[in-house]
Amino acid sequence: MFLVENCKKSYREFISVAIDNQSIERLSKRLSELEFGTPNWQEDHCYKGDPERSLSWIFLFNAVNYCYWPQNGPRWIAQAGGRTYGDDDEAKGVMAVLARALENGVPLDDPKWLSQMDLDDFRPFFYPAAASGDLPLLELRVHSLKEMGKAFHTYGGAIGMLTTAEFNAQKLTLLLMDACPSWRDVVEYHGVELAFCKRAWLTAAMCHGRFQDDPTRRIVNPEVIPAFADYRLPQFLREAGVLRYSQTLSDHIDSHKELKYGSNDEIEIRAATIIAMEKIKENLKVLDKEVSSIELDHVIWSAAVNAQDKLKPHHRTRTVGY
User: Is the pTM of this model over 0.85?
Assistant: First the structure.
């Protein structure tokens, strides 16, 4: 898959995005003072019950974990179990409604039920909280869950897919792309294939985090998992001066105009994010702070979510890739 190497290979052709090494050094010094750790995905918005259903929950979440920003109007905030979730990030809301549904006996991990569901089955789970907007792309998300239902049927559920992949992060990513075509987040830039596969890699990372102390379910090679090229990481890295955009691209993003998935500018943002995260890891290692991509991603993502109202806008791309 060679994502990091191919991103570096493609960088020499970039026009709209550049990486500032001095800013990487400054940011690395700031980060070296922080504590890092692998998220265990057992917060309040997560499913914390039976291990097999926890595994299913991870796969189900990532089946619909893409493109939350609203076209117009307010953001979606989840309402589940008399509470609201996802005020700061819609992904947490999606995690919560799926978790509460599983806890309440909804057979979301039943391949037959999943493969036959429709929008009417799906809509009640994602009912918006008062004064919030609708979750976008509902019909696509229904399709994504039905797609996962078929994969569960073929391989014997989430645990069957993980077992088939031999608990190997790279093999799991390839399996998910093969079993679920919408997970194939692969583009080409000047003849170089870039397999970002954000949702698939995140599935492996979440399996590692949730089951890192469980020898029967944990991922055997978490070190191969790269950072996850989405919206929040480049938003934070741009603010930190690590990513520098051309004036044309800056104006485009700051005016909330969409970037087409697979366009040169969109690819450059994501590839530069991967390269920058690797450079930060290398700098941290020099500073005697060795961290994994999963740990670094979590710190940067959390910082971006917490500071989102103070940051310049993130780029907007309508896609099921991320």
Answer: yes
Are 170 and 185 contacting, i.e. CB atoms less than 8 angstroms apart? no
Number of domains in the chain: 1
Q: Does residue 322 sit within a domain? A: no
Query: Element (H or E) spanning 17, and its range?
Result: strand 17-19
Evaluate whether residue 195 is within a structural domain: yes
pLDDT of residue 1: 73
What residues does 78 pair with on adjacent strands?
Answer: 85, 128
Given a cut of 90, is residue 208 above it in pLDDT? yes
Place of tokens 């970037």: 259
Q: What domain range is 223 assigned to? A: 3-310
User: Please, what's the b/e burial string for 279-318 (b: 16 or more CB within 10 A of its CB; e: otherwise)?
Assistant: bbbebbeeeebebbbbbbbbbbbebbbeebeebeebbbbb
Phi-psi group of 90: left, alpha or beta (phi > 0 → left; psi -120 to 50 → alpha; rest → beta): alpha
Alpha-carbon distance of 40 to 88, in angstroms, equals 19
Task: Give the integer Cα–Cα distance in Å for 152 and 154.
Answer: 6
For 253-304, what is each residue's pLDDT tens digit?
A: 999 999 999 999 999 999 999 999 999 999 999 999 999 999 999 999 999 9
Indicate the helix (H) or strand (E) that contains 53: helix 51-63
